[in-house]
Design a protein that fits this description.
- The protein is mainly alpha-helical.
- It contains 23 helices and six strands.
- The protein has helices at 13-43, 58-81, 90-114, 132-161, 175-198, 203-227, 236-253, 261-278, 292-315, 322-340, 346-370, 378-415, 434-463, 477-504, 511-516, 526-541, 550-570, 582-606, 616-642, 666-695, 703-742, 746-751, 756-797, and strands at residues 416-417, 608-609, 612-613, 649-651, 656-658, 744-745.
- The strands form three sheets. A two-stranded antiparallel sheet has the order 1-6. The chain has a two-stranded antiparallel sheet with strand order 2-3. Strands 4-5 form a two-stranded antiparallel sheet.
- Helix 11 runs parallel beside helix 13 (434-463), helix 14 runs parallel beside helix 19 and helix 20 runs parallel beside helix 23 (756-797).
- The longest helix has 42 residues, at 756-797.
- It is globular and about 85 Å long.
- It starts with 12 loop residues before the first helix and ends with a helix.
Length: 798
Amino acid sequence: MTAVASSSVAVPANGRDDDLRRALLVGAGIVLPGFIALALLGSLRTYPAGLPGFWDYPSGTIGDALLVPTIVVALVVQAQALRQWAVPGERHWQILGAVVGAVGGAAVPLSWYLDPHTSHIWMLPEAHHYLLAGWWHFGYLTAATALLGYLIVTVLGRLHRAPNAATGLPKGFSSTAMTFIVGAGLAMLMLIGRDAVAGGKTAASATTIASLVAVAAIFLGGLAWAAGTVRWRLLLTPAAIVTVFLVGLLGVIVGWKPHDPVIIGLGAITAALACIAATSPLGSHPEHAQNRWPTAVAMTAVVTAGLIRSSDSLLRGESRPLLWLVAGVVLAFALLLLVDRGQNDFRRVVRYSFFVGYCMLMYYLAVRIRSPLGEDSAGASVSVADAAFDVMVFTLIQTRFGDLGDGDKQRVEAEFISSPDQASRPTSQEVSSGPGIVVDMLLLGIAVGLSLFMLLVVAAEALGLDRNTVDVSTIRVVLLIGTILAGALGLLSNFLLRRWRVREGEPPVDSRLLHHGLYLPHWFGAAAIAAALVWLTTILALSGGPVHIPLLASLAAVVVFAFSMRTLLSTPVLLQMLRPTIGQVALCFMAAAAVALGAFWFISMGIWQGSQPLTGAWFVATTICVFAGTTIVYTAAGHALTAGLPPAVIDPATDERSKTQYVLSREAIQGYIGLDAINLGVVLLIGVALPLYAATRDQELHASSLSVIAAMVFLPGLISAIFWGLHNWRLWEDLNAQASRTGISRPIFALTDHDWHQAKALDARRAKRFLIHLRLNRYSMIALMACGLAYLADVLLR
């Protein structure tokens, strides 16, 4: 939860990263003896049956798992930001704060232990008798509140001593940290109060509630004292964020625990992914950057609350249960509009509200199908999901291209020059690069994919689609291990190449680069090839049993190999007008072969166990691992190659770095490699996995059940391919039109040592290559999707 731009003293970026890492370590340290230890003790079930257990108390689940670590991390970050105002005498106050915190924390469990009339719970099965978990909780709570008291006194004291900056806030004041502290702190008090009230009208409950009121009053009063003459109107935005967050949390805990906690939990994760993508523009505005993460958290809370309240209303038989979900989505995006104060495009907000609303609707329909009310209407629920998806995608396509056109125009204007003289003038505008869009697309793709799969898995049983399926053997865990190892090697490759690049310096951007090619060490592909080999080994280890639909699997593998091999060579090398070496070609070949073999195994063996298809849950788990492994291997190879590119073009006349987006820009090319990897994974998911899921179900089903799934699969996949192709096509059209009308790209001009005629000829060759590249990309995606859809059509028409 956040406010205005921070007024902190300038701290180097690496110093801020170190501070954050230390704070996260402290936060992780409080989770281990708190949530994890208590959850393990609660799972032992050493208490009598019938008593409320660990998961029945949101202060121990949501609170100890999320809120307490958040408070600790935010307090540590804020204390470090205010370190300039530390004084030697503060140690005495810190110790006093720790002592007071420890006494206050110990008083609450002690009152429950001493009260003869207190309600019996899993830690306290009878009066005056704590189990091991109870005494552990007593010690943990005492230590945690001591730490909180120490940190709160530290922050408030330093904040009081800090002078006000020009913004009206104290120097070193972090709006993000303080908003998280206040929001999570009040939320934790709310959860503890809820659990105390649930314990009945006892002396222990009264002691707990009185302690909560005192803590809230002391902290807020101390914050007002520490802030001094701060301009309180500057804190209206974080106050609104905190308010929405608390409203959402209240909606979550009413009637705790929620029905279908697995569905609700995945729904909360999906909402978080979509809300993070929706708030990404806040990060590019200096005034609103610190509002981004608190806003995303508050939006997630209120959307999740809407889903929970709608599900509960449905199961209680109330009328119009979806109004709760609609209200949650509307409130979340109203907060986004309030926070960005008109900086965000209203149409974009509407589009993202469609995304979030659609995803939450999938989880609501899954709850409905699982309920006794929805068993007989599973097909109708899936049809509703199909119609909602069609409306969402149509709205997205109708309005998205206008925004892309504006962004493309700015990026082209920043990169292209119309005369040799213009090359000596640096660009005056900062333009956001493509990778930001890539991240948003990835988050939204994962969110939509999770919600679709959850609905289909839940609907499978009601529709009879899993009637003849089987579970897999435990050996399938090898797939997860292989994915994790490949990811670790990919991270290692990136880390080693970054260190090498810092040590060696950046490559030149002139004719030497054109003749030499990528500047890379001889070992540049070692870790990336190891990641590909791990993935290959994993797939080969799981390759056993009969091979199903070999023709479809072979065709898909050929398309995947051709796409991967060509794009890995083209994007970081050929489209940069450079020549690949044998080692670079070998790296691309290994990565493409690993990805293609993974696609072949997935289609022919991965979704089967013997002669029967997998159950829905195992199918989802296998698909996610294949999606992750494919993306990791492809991205690791591509990023290993981009390490040989310059970060951007430096103009020798001005020593300024041009913000190029298409040619010889390491960060941008890495983003486009990520986009290709995501496109490949998503099309494999939507165009192949979902049709196979429908087609491999019991083929003796009544046609209407299968056609419901088929209808849901076909149109989203088709639209995804069209949208992806049109986006890239428009990108090329803008780029090519600008090049032919006004001049050439700045990096191309630098690559020819500022020879205008050579640069024009080189740029013409580059534009031709780019056109062919995009056409082949589009045809590859269509061919891959055609494999899955053709098989589905064949099954339906038999």
